[in-house]
Amino acid sequence: MRRAALLLSLLPFVLSATELAPWLGNDKEIELRVATGYQTYSRLEVGGSKVSVNSDDFFLNLSGAISPSYPWSAELELNLIKTPRNDYGVEALKATGRYLWMNDLTGAPVSLATGMTIGYSPDDAVNDFSIPHHGNCELEAHIAIGKEHAHSRKDWEQRYWALLGVGYGFSDSPWIHYHAQFEQNIRQQHQVHLFLAGRYGFGSKDIDPTKPFKGYANIDHHHVDTGFAYQYTIDYIGALKGSFAYRIHTHNGPEEAAIFLLTFLFPFGL
Predict the structure, then answer these.
(1) Among 75, 112, 210, 234, which is least packed, fewest CB within 10 Å?
(2) Which domains does the chain possess?
(3) pLDDT tens digit sequence for 3-61
(4) pTM above 0.85, yes or no
(5) Is omega for the bond preceding 122 within 30 degrees of 0, making it cis?
């Protein structure tokens, strides 16, 4: 069950269920994740101006990950969304492959993993400013590094990790995204997490609220979120995690967004 808790606690806080932290699951074990999220904001920042937009967005994310052969892992993800501009429908389909180059759980000084994620999103999702899509087909390369402090492999106290991703939507400009997280373990059953995450798009234009929105590919946009989470490990079953994030900085996008996420992980062997 320590591994189940590890995997859920490493879930990056974005409205996505893709696992990107520098640790893998057990060989030949499938980890199923179900995450439901809610995002709310009342205005857009558009090139230094404010535009009133009341938006209540609902997300449902389903994913399955497996480590078919150490040190490889693979994951498939389906994201659904409902916003004032979209009825419930597909937000993204994603596939991720990762390779663990170094593992601090087996004696290396740090854990280091690299990977690639490819995703497809329909036009309705790309054209919704609640989601920072750059195109229908998107590709992102990512690297993550982390360190765990423990009395033993079954009794860890603290860990921290960071990730940097670089992506392209096959139209106009690329983006980078980053995530840093600190975790405190209490009696191997309760965990508290603090995190900072952001995204920076290298477009050259501002959002024009007088024209139909066509995605963030050519938009100069960036945002920073910070937040916390609490996780409870359910012995022999899985783990449950509740998270909250608040957008502390926005340029061309939803401003001061509040994001809530509830995630459940259920691992089982093949």
Answers:
(1) 210
(2) 2-269 (2.40.160.40)
(3) 444 444 444 445 566 778 898 877 778 889 999 999 999 999 999 999 999 999 999 99
(4) yes
(5) no
